């Protein structure tokens, strides 16, 4: 197994190279889409944001392995996972299957985008095309009212819990003093 470390390479060119057996990526949306369309197995090491979702999505299709960033220190585990990714044909088979599905979608994504843009141009103020969420205020949009209410209920609950515990402890101490 040969590994080449580079600061930057043109990713689409790299993914289209027939010598590439597996690709290691953080799982950003761009990398995820390029890996999926390339039909190459991938080791996905998500860091934050949408990356865990992207990594597990490709792993569910069977053409990638989602690897926990906290296990990068474990060289043996990483080597085992990489060897499995490169030597087990199921990853390449599943990656190729996903590639085939993507290239043979019943609705061409580019054509679909063009159709939606043309529709929006023809009917610019169509009320049914405006999402309902855009009509609510910032507080309701982010559920700040619900979060505030639940936070208040939680705070009151904790306060009452500590009052009860305090009263119980005071009674125990008073009984102890009274018995002495």
Automatic annotation (TrEMBL):
One of its GO terms (cellular component) is membrane. The chain crosses the membrane at residues 142-165. The keyword Membrane applies. It comes from the Eukaryota. GO terms for molecular function: glucuronosyltransferase activity. Its main location: membrane. CDD domains: GT1_Gtf-like (cd03784). It is found in: Membrane. SUPFAM superfamilies: UDP-Glycosyltransferase/glycogen phosphorylase (SSF53756). Keywords: Glycosyltransferase, Membrane, Signal, Transferase, Transmembrane, Transmembrane helix. It catalyses: glucuronate acceptor + UDP-alpha-D-glucuronate = acceptor beta-D-glucuronoside + UDP + H(+). It is an enzyme of class 2 (transferase). Gene3D superfamilies: Glycogen Phosphorylase B. It is a single-pass membrane protein. It holds the Pfam family UDPGT. Its EC number is 2.4.1.17. Belongs to the UDP-glycosyltransferase family. This is glucuronosyltransferase. It comes from Caenorhabditis brenneri (Nematode worm). The lineage of its organism: Eukaryota, Metazoa, Ecdysozoa, Nematoda, Chromadorea.
